[in-house]
Design brief:
mainly alpha; 0% strand; 6 helices
């Protein structure tokens, strides 16, 4: 897999994450993903990693660690490959787990998601 493939894989996972959020947090994550947000994305990523390391405290959680690493990996090329491989592994395990439960699970396809949202009637897309 080339560097561009790793970057595309990370983008696909971030698009999936963004699609699962309510509109306001999704808008913020979309803004963080833009190249112009680099100077905000890095400190937010470092803060999330720090919060994940301190997950034993009541307010913080372990969920912060991977999210911070994904944000940092967008700007640190050395982290792209391991992050993309880890996200791919997690997705495979999640889909396998969902299929064992009998849930029809398919990998996220950003193009299909965009087509589906474009064909949804404006009355159904409230708040976007």
């Amino acid at each position: 897999m080339s560097d561009l493939d790793h970057r595309a894989e990370i983008e696909r996972h971030l698009a999936w994450f963004e699609s699962k959020l309510p509109p306001k947090p999704a808008h913020f994550v979309g803004w963080l993903r833009k190249p112009s947000s680099r100077y905000v994305r890095l400190p937010v990523g470092v803060a999330l990693v720090g919060g994940g390391v301190l997950s034993f405290l009541p307010v913080l959680g372990l969920w912060m660690l991977p999210l911070g690493l994904v944000l940092i990996s967008q700007d640190v090329p050395a982290l792209e490959k391991p992050t993309a491989r880890t996200l791919g592994w997690l997705e495979r395990k999640w889909l396998e787990h969902q299929r064992k439960k009998g849930v029809d699970a398919t990998p996220f396809n950003a193009e299909q998601q965009a087509l589906d949202s474009a064909t949804t009637s404006p009355a159904k897309r409230v708040g976007t």
